[in-house]
Amino acid sequence: MKKALFIVLLIVPTVLLGQGTSRGSTYLKIPSSARIGATAEATIADPGSFSSSFLNPANMAMSTRAEILLAHTEWIQGLQNELLSATLPVSYGIMGMALTSANIRDIEVREIPGPPVATFTARFATIQLLYGLQASEEFSLGVNFKYLYEKIYVDESSGYALDIGAVYSFLSERFSLGASVSNIGPGTRFRSVSSDLPSQFQFGGSYTITETDVDLLVSASFVHEFQATRSRMNFGSETHYGKTLFLRLGYQSGFESRSITGGVGFRYSFAKFDYAYLPFSLGLGNVHMLSLGFEL
Question: Whose CA, among 7, 29, 51, 118, lies 20 to 30 Å from 182?
Fold first, then answer.
């Protein structure tokens, strides 16, 4: 039984990331919403966007309205991820809260080769507290504190993580630069085995081209993963007509099993709906992401 559980502890993080290299809590690297997934996680500098705050918490600082964001993700190999989040402007900045839940069902347990003796569900949850502050007309800061909980078979673990970021906008807010450091913390621990968080540094920029009824946002970001000691690039674009219909396309380098991303969005009055599609190769399957947002 101990040997079977040890194998499960090795396999589950691989399923979470697809082809990732981080040794622990890799569910933290799943895109938070459909818009982020469709634009290849390139919107590190995206002032005023709550969805992009999960990449860089400073992005939310320029938002002036309360917002609710719900998201559902069907990740590869049966992983399901749910997000419930909201923001509220306060006297000095804007605050946000998010609850993320991920699970992998029907994982088989074997003591010897043959039929499984049981099945179980691996569960992962994150409670996030976000804060954004617009220090000046051009410069914003943000922080995201995370409480982490994991349960694999009968073993439970918890830990903490922190994201910090900054955004600088100029050229009448058409051009922005941003940077963030994500998942800083001591990591989680199962029994006597500790795991590192998927800490990473991200730096990127975005530029908005504005016409009468059509806007085009182009973004790019550089990502360095500390534990994996590797770097990669993300590229994303988003165009809309009359802020009603949105089309999105992205590209991620540095992965063996995925690269192109895409999606659409619709907005009516205070509600918005987004969908993203992330195809995987190597027989891993495809990812579907749905998001529903409300501006209050």
Answer: 7
